[in-house]
Amino acid sequence: MTKQQVFAIILTVLFIDQCSKIYIKTHFEIGQALVIFNWFKILFVENDGMAWGAKLSDFTSFFSDKSAKLYLTIFRILALIGIGYWLFGLVKKQAYRILILAVTLVFSGALGNILDSVFYGIIFNDSLGQKAVLFADKGYGSLFYGNVVDMLHFPIYKGYFPEWFPFIGGHYFTFFNPVFNVADVAISTGVGLLILCNMGHKSSKDASFRIDKSDLV
Q: Which of 65, 150, 206, 215 is the catalytic position?
């Protein structure tokens, strides 16, 4: 896979991701939903933490929500630099196309969400009870303190856990409950491909070992 192809994939993911987020921000209020099907909704939520809405401050009392948000954004940027360096090395060595594609998708998705965290707080005003304005006079936050925009929701099944389930029996649940975005899809797809690459690599090594061992007999 060439540098041009990698660059094209990154631009495509970023374009779709950012266009969808900007559209949602400027046409929906927080919590507003549009039902496409019973099992698929456009639901506008904002995530100021990690995956599933968790925050660093939830796990330790050493950090306030504000400082935890800053540290998380900085960590994401450093992680993105590391992934970018890895990707550059894979392209330079002309590694397996599927491996390069996987890392490219992870990089693209991570970059898409980092753009939200770094810039959205200063280019959008608040979405609470109103539709946000792009390049508003006053943003809802400051640099590095933006929230990630999520909108894809797939409540495929809703019901109650059977009573015999330990601890959660009888509780109401939704599958699939998390709300995510295009960048998250790119990251998840990339991670899935990385797992497949790793499994394939292990299988190849095992096969090679079996062949070498048989040659000794």
A: 150
